[in-house]
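Fold it.
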Amino acid sequence: MKFRLIHAEKGHHEVSLLARVLGVSRQGYYAWAARQRRGPSTRARHDAELTERIRRHHQASDEIYGAPRIHADLRELDGVRVGRKRVARLMRVAGLAGVSRRKGVRTTVTDPRARSASDLVGRDFCAEEPNRIWTADITYVPTWQGFIYLAVVLDVFSCRIVGWAMAEHMRTELVTDALAMALHQRRPEAGVIHHSDKGGAIHLDCLRSAL
């Protein structure tokens, strides 16, 4: 601001006087004026062009994409080779940010009243034949309308999904529906262990009556 004021008033007063009154050096003013005559640097011009590309890709994504996805679009769609850190910096300067759909999502909700089951697997996730150890877990799939929760049952021997269920909630029936599918498809003999991501496991015999 001080250099701009000197530039505006230099027609009425000496530059050296204005610089002394404003507490800046005359050389500093002349260096600033030279930069103004040269215009933006090559780097600054490239940053401005790149920011405009970033803004277009961000708008095309409905303002969802963050720096990693924008960086990928610049490379794959525009053929622009640029570092991801530079993209992230320009997005911060332009006030652009992506949307994280993972924030606040929990797929494990512990019931404090429930009794923990014994760990019958002992962290040894190997099976010598099918239908000896089944593992179970819940994940989620983001959609434009919200999250869809997916429960799966996997046979450790073949690493194949033997049962699954999807719902808009994580209530007990989501898990039991996946297990019911596994039972219907495999019809295992007694002794198979159903192991959850919390480390608890129970004999399937105990679940048959509940299903």
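The first strand starts at residue 133 and ends at 143.
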